[in-house]
């Protein structure tokens, strides 16, 4: 039977790769809903190709633009805004929702989808970073599977498959180290957005590319792993592995380490989530180990990359602190991309914001959103005042 899918964030890098896989296996998947922010040309192309029942965009103006961009014989229901995204996530016919929206915008539609009993292929890490306790609790109650699309978490779930959770000792989360692994910290004040957007091994969107350069991406992944695999933060260790061939590892109490490997291409993780527990014949090449010669590893430099350290701190503080870290980071990264602040100010601003926040434990969704909004304003003010 065909799996009926909703793709939230269909015009981004993960969304496009998801659609490529769906195109490869038309007998296995069908697209019932698409949601994007504002890339109308690409979205209308996707609608013509996949013919969904419902399509969501960011606002009314874009909805009108999309309606007029579509040929007369294509008339999906076009909705917009947060209510529109929710509608695209809970459509009756849908089995699984792929949440590949960038940033905190992913949280509300993902929660709506879980509440409606849809399985989730999760690429939006902010959903777990902001509200991991709420999301995982609701997923358990609704008997919903959360299948990670993030390559590291996909790797970890593959390494855990078939073993006893009680035998797990550590999760070894690998990091490519980003484009500035070998740059000295002194040069960080001079980094331009375009330097950070050139990732050596992974092709990604803008925000995640900056997060990868600061290692905040890895920090968010630590928090994501804590919730997804229900382990304390001190069971998670980050290992820098520049070749990105090992996508992550786990170790067991007997000292055995299981690694999941593959070429650095998101399609593997996406396909695994879409068709779990089945594997799809993707025809991906395996790594050429002889050509690679060696795989290298090192510890992350937390002084040079304070964002990773801040994420571990937020993870251990728990409650609303990860949401505050995430919100502060989103605003600081945005300010850097707009050239309003220098690259090395990103962690400084996040640290200042975290220092001013009093953690709320067992927070409600409203309290989390309030903390998120507070942190955004706080950083916006820091940026404006040039502090
Ligand atoms: Mg990742």
How does this structure look, described?
This protein has helices at residues 13-24, 40-50, 60-69, 81-90, 107-115, 125-141, 151-160, 193-196, 206-214, 216-228, 267-275, 289-292, 306-317, 321-337, 345-355, 365-385, and strands at residues 3-8, 29-35, 54-57, 77-80, 96-99, 119-122, 146-148, 168-175, 236-240, 246-252, 257-261. Strands 4-3-2-1-5-6-7 form a seven-stranded parallel sheet, sandwiched between helices. It has three domains: 3-148, Rossmann fold; 151-264 and 299-312, no CATH class; 318-387, RNA polymerase sigma factor, region 2, helix turn helix motif (Rna Polymerase Sigma Factor, Chain: A, Orthogonal Bundle). Helix 5 (107-115) links the parallel strand 5 and strand 6 (119-122). The chain has 387 residues and is of the alpha/beta class. The chain has 16 helices and eleven strands. It is 46% helix and 15% strand. The mean pLDDT is 95. Bound molecules: magnesium ion. Residues 150-152, 221 line the site of magnesium ion. Magnesium ion binds at residues 150-152, 221.
Kindly report the average pLDDT value. 95
**Structural class by sheet pairing and helices:** alpha/beta
Say which molecules are bound, naming each kind only once.
Answer: magnesium ion
Query: Low-confidence spans: pLDDT under 50, at least 5 residues?
Result: none
SSE order in H/E notation?
A: EHEHEHEHEHEHEHEHHHEEEHHHHHH
Give me the CATH fold name of the largest domain.
Answer: Rossmann fold
> Kindly, what is the distance between the CA atoms of the first and last residues, rounded to a whole number of angstroms?
57 Å
User: Biggest sheet, in brief?
Assistant: 7 strands, parallel
Query: Radius of gyration in whole Å, from Cα?
Result: 20 Å
Number of domains: 3
CATH architecture of the largest domain: 3-Layer(aba) Sandwich
Strand order of the largest sheet: 4-3-2-1-5-6-7
* Portion in helices: 40-55%
Q: CATH-wise, what's the superfamily of the largest domain?
A: NAD(P)-binding Rossmann-like Domain
**What global shape is seen?**
globular
Indicate the CATH class of the largest domain: Alpha Beta
Number of strands: 11
């Amino acid at each position: 039977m065909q799996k009926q899918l909703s793709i939230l964030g269909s015009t981004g890098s993960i969304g496009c790769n998801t659609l490529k896989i769906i195109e490869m296996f038309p007998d296995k998947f069908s697209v019932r809903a698409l949601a994007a922010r504002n890339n109308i040309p690409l979205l209308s192309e996707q609608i013509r190709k996949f013919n969904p029942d419902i399509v969501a965009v960011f606002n009314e103006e874009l909805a009108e633009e999309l309606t007029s961009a579509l040929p007369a014989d294509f008339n999906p229901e076009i909705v917009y805004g947060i209510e529109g995204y929710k509608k695209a996530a809970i459509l009756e016919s849908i089995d699984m929702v792929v949440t590949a929206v960038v940033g905190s915008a992913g949280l509300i539609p993902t929660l709506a989808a879980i509440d409606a009993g849809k399985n989730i292929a999760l690429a939006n890490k902010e959903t777990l970073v902001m509200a991991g306790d709420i999301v995982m609790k609701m997923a358990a109650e609704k008997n919903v599977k959360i299948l990670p699309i993030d390559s590291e978490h996909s790797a970890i779930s593959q390494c855990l498959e078939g073993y006893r959770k009680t035998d797990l000792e550590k999760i070894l989360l690998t990091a490519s180290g980003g484009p500035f692994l070998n740059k000295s910290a002194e040069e960080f004040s001079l980094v331009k957005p375009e330097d950070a957007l050139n990732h050596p091994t992974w092709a990604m969107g803008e925000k995640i590319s900056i997060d990868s350069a600061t290692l905040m991406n890895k920090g968010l992944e630590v928090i994501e792993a804590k919730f997804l695999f229900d382990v304390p933060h001190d069971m998670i260790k980050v290992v820098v592995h520049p070749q990105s061939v090992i996508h992550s590892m786990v170790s067991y109490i007997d000292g055995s380490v299981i690694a999941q490997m593959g070429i650095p291409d998101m399609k593997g993780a996406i396909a695994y989530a879409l068709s779990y527990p089945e594997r799809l014949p993707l025809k991906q090449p395996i790594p050429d180990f002889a050509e690679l010669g060696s795989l290298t590893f090192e510890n992350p430099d937390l002084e040079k990359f304070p964002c990773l350290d801040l994420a571990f701190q937020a993870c251990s503080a728990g409650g609303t602190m990860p949401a505050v870290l995430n919100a502060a980071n989103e605003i600081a990264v945005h300010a850097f991309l707009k050239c309003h602040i220098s690259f090395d100010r990103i962690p400084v601003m996040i640290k200042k914001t975290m220092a001013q926040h009093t953690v709320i434990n067992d927070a409600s969704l409203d309290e989390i959103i309030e903390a998120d909004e507070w942190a955004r304003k706080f950083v916006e003010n820091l940026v404006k005042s040039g502090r």
